Amino acid sequence: QVQLVESGGGLVQAGGSLTVSCAASAASARTFSLYGMGWFRQAPGKERDFVAAIHKSGTTTYYADSVKGRFTISRDNAKNTVYLRMDSLKPEDTAVYFCAASPLITPTTSAHVRYWGQGTQVTVSS
Fold it and tell me: What distance in Å separates the CA atoms of residue 123 and residue 121, rounded to the nearest whole number?
């Protein structure tokens, strides 16, 4: 069992930056390193969409077209933590951001996800 806890959400002006973090508990550093990690987001009245994902080794990353060049996903396996740095934020980035974990594969769709975090709200004002 892996528990994911997001932090770092908040209110930011358009054009600003924000970093959200996801800490995995109940997992050793070795166990965490076996999980592909990702971020998804869900705006009110919309489906949960893929944002970014990172291979368990940290060597390969994937991004949705809508955030490519603006968002950066990274991980620190020694700290059991994955990060999403968001730059040049737009009002349309406003959503609840969910951390996701999948054993051995990189979660680029919801179907890949084994564990979800509870979500953190990111609001971008215009």
Answer: 6
Enumerate the β-bridge partners of residue 22: 6, 82
Cβ partners under 8 Å of residue 37, min gap 6:
22, 53, 54, 56, 73, 75, 82, 99, 100, 101, 102, 106, 107
- What is the distance of C-alpha 49 from the center of its chain? 11
List, for the chain, all residue ranges whose pLDDT scores fall below the cut of 50. none
**pLDDT at res. 27:** 67
* 125 burial type by CB count under 10 A (0-12 exposed, 13-18 middle, 19+ buried): exposed
| pLDDT at residue number 47 | 97
